[in-house]
Amino acid sequence: MNKLQELKKHLKRGRVYRRADLSKWSKSVDRHLEELVRYGILKKLSQGLYYYPKITVFGEAPPEEEVLVRSFLKDKRFLVTSFNEYNVLGVGTTQLYNGKTVYNHKRHGDFDLGGRMFSFRVKPRFPSKATPEFLLVDLLNNIEQLAEDSNELVLKVRCKAKTMNTKKLKKSLLEYGSIKAKKLLEPVI
Asked: Across residues 39-54, what is the average pLDDT?
C-alpha cells in the first residue's frame, strides 16, 4: 500500500482536518494534501483546513457548522449566532444577513471557511446557547451594525424588555451587555 493510500484509510467522511492532524500519518503531508485535493478526495476550506465530504443522495454535503468552527478554533468553547436571530424577538428586525458571528476566546476577524463567511469576535464571556435575553442584549450591543432605524429599534427593545423574565434579562445585561446596552436597558428593567 502506498503512503497516500495509507493516509486516506485514516480519513473519515464528514470530518474536518487540520494539516497538523494529518502529519502524524504522513511524512510528506503537504504533497499528500495537494494530491488528495487534486483527486477530489479532500476539499480545502482555508489555509491548513480540509474537509472529507460526506456523500448524500444529493451529492457532497458541506461540513456541519459546529464541526467546521470547532476545527478552525481548535476549541469547543464558542457560540455561533447571526443577526437574523434577532428577528424572532418581535422587535421589528426583518433584515436577512449572510454572515455568522462566532463569539470565542481565541480568534478575531472575518474568515471565509469553505465559502461561508464567519465573523469571529473574541469575548471574555458568552453563553453556551443563545437565549432570548442574551439576544436582546446582543442586539443592543450590535445596534449600530443593523440596517433598521436605531431609535425606533431601541423603543421596541425597551417595550419587549418589560415583557421578559426580569431576573434573566438583568443577568444577561450584567454579564454580556456593553456600557451603551446597559444605559439603554437598565432604566426599564
From this structure: 94
The CA radius of gyration of the chain, in Å to the nearest whole number, is 21
Q: What is the pLDDT of residues 96-153, one digit of tens each?
A: 998 899 999 999 999 999 899 999 999 999 999 999 999 999 999 999 999 999 999 9
Structure-block grid coordinates of residue 177:
451587555
Same-domain check for residues 138 and 89 = yes
| Predicted pLDDT at 1 | 47
Q: Residue 165: helix, strand or coil by DSSP?
A: coil
Number of independent structural domains in the chain: 2
Tell me: do 52 and 103 sit in the same domain.
Answer: no
* Nearest in space to 67 (alpha carbons), one of 85, 84, 83, 49: 49
CATH number of the domain that 22 lies in?
1.10.10
Strand (E) or helix (H) holding 176: helix 166-176
Per-residue cell: 91: 422587535
